[in-house]
Design a protein that fits this description.
Layout: H1 8-12, E1 17-23, E2 41-48, E3 53-57, H2 66-78, E4 85-89, H3 105-133, E5 140-143, E6 146-149, E7 156-158, H4 159-163, E8 167-171, H5 196-200, H6 232-238, H7 252-257, E9 275-276, E10 282-287, E11 290-295, H8 300-311, E12 318-322, E13 328-329, H9 334-348
Length: 353
């Protein structure tokens, strides 16, 4: 199993499809990104006349299972079986820029437009079925991707039937009627995680497993002059530093001189280690006209901005393809190693792992 890679331009050019998109003026992450090309659209959802559903989210799965949870949300609002939904996560060439994957933002924030997109697609398909069957939309319901009469009977049209020969494009609406929680049959249920079988059988493609033609293997040798960490607090203080004034209000010295009691204290926060479970890895292919980076980052779009600054290339010329990587406590070095790989690739003119 590997991260599916899809070109939105190729998808949007196909017949027999329904896409839900949002104008490019969307909320971005904490790291500034270059403005999108004029008229660019974010793709949230794509259905085709083969019955497949592609759902797109800018966040990535860090082992928390959001690939499964987001697919549940899309399947629920579309009324299709869960195994019909394929999630595309964090690929800068095919997902919306929804910032860094942090805390619980993936479900409570970045899943919201996906849920609305799926609900909007369902309403649109039901309206098409109502027109084809000559009945009010309120008389119809959906079961496993088939629109049929609530009262029963043989009349029914599958999503695939309704999309045949069409190419419908919807811009995400500001307000969409969602399914009430009382009607949920997928969200809130225990379902097997979609990534576990491939991981358990050794078929899962981590970033460490990525191989591209002509690739070289690189290693960065770091200097051994490390400080003595037996006294972490003083070792950190001994590092070169430049004071940065954040705010200056009032007269601190005068306040101390006039205080009834002055307390001098030093507080040291215990050192918290950000520890990787395995070595960080990335593959980069830097060319004169752009770069492709396969990375375990949790920040695809911020990483693209950093690589742009590092290489002096425009952001739109850089593609970040995200693969899962070794786990970690806190931050690992996924972005750092991507920069290393990019510099090595530029230096030798070949893809470098």
């Amino acid at each position: 199993m590997s991260e599916p890679v899809f070109s939105p331009d190729d998808l949007l050019a196909r017949d027999g499809t329904l896409a839900v998109l949002r104008p490019a003026q969307h909320v971005r992450g904490l790291v500034p990104s270059a403005p999108p090309k004029e008229g660019a659209l974010d793709l949230f959802l794509m259905l085709d006349d083969a019955g497949r559903v592609l759902a797109f989210n800018g966040h990535v799965d860090l082992g928390t299972g959001i690939r499964t949870a987001l697919a549940q949300i899309a399947a629920e609002e579309l009324d299709v079986p869960l195994d019909r939904v394929t999630m595309v996560l964090g690929h800068t060439g095919g997902t919306p820029n929804q910032g860094a994957t942090i805390a619980s933002d993936s479900i409570q924030v970045s899943a919201v437009p996906l849920r609305r997109a799926a609900a909007q697609a369902r309403h649109h398909l039901v309206a098409l079925a109502a027109q084809a069957l000559g009945v009010p939309a309120d008389d119809l319901t959906v079961t496993d991707g088939v629109v049929h009469l609530r009262a029963g009977g043989n009349a029914g049209l599958s999503y695939a039937d309704l999309l045949s020969g069409r190419r419908d494009r919807l811009v995400l609406a500001d307000s969409v009627a969602l399914k009430p929680v009382s009607e949920h049959r997928i969200v809130g249920q225990r379902v097997p995680r979609v990534d576990i079988p491939a991981k358990a059988t050794g078929q899962f493609v981590y970033v460490h497993d990525v191989r591209v033609p002509g690739m070289l293997h690189g290693r960065v040798v770091r200097p051994p002059a490390l400080p003595d960490l037996k006294d972490v607090a003083n070792a950190l203080r001994a590092n070169p530093a430049r004071p940065r004034l954040l705010a200056a209000h009032g007269d601190v010295d005068a306040a101390r001189d006039g205080a009834a009691q002055v307390l001098d204290r030093t507080y040291v926060w215990p050192y918290q280690m950000h520890a990787s479970i395995g070595p960080s890895c990335a593959v980069a292919d830097v060319r004169g006209d752009g770069a492709t980076v396969w990375s375990g980052t949790q920040n695809p779009y911020p990483l693209r901005a950093d690589i742009s600054l590092l290489l002096g290339l425009p952001e739109e010329a850089i593609e970040i393809i995200r693969h899962e990587a070794a786990g970690c406590y806190g931050r690992n070095c996924a972005d750092d190693v991507a920069a290393d790989a990019a510099l090595l690739s530029r230096a030798v003119g070949r893809p470098v792992r």
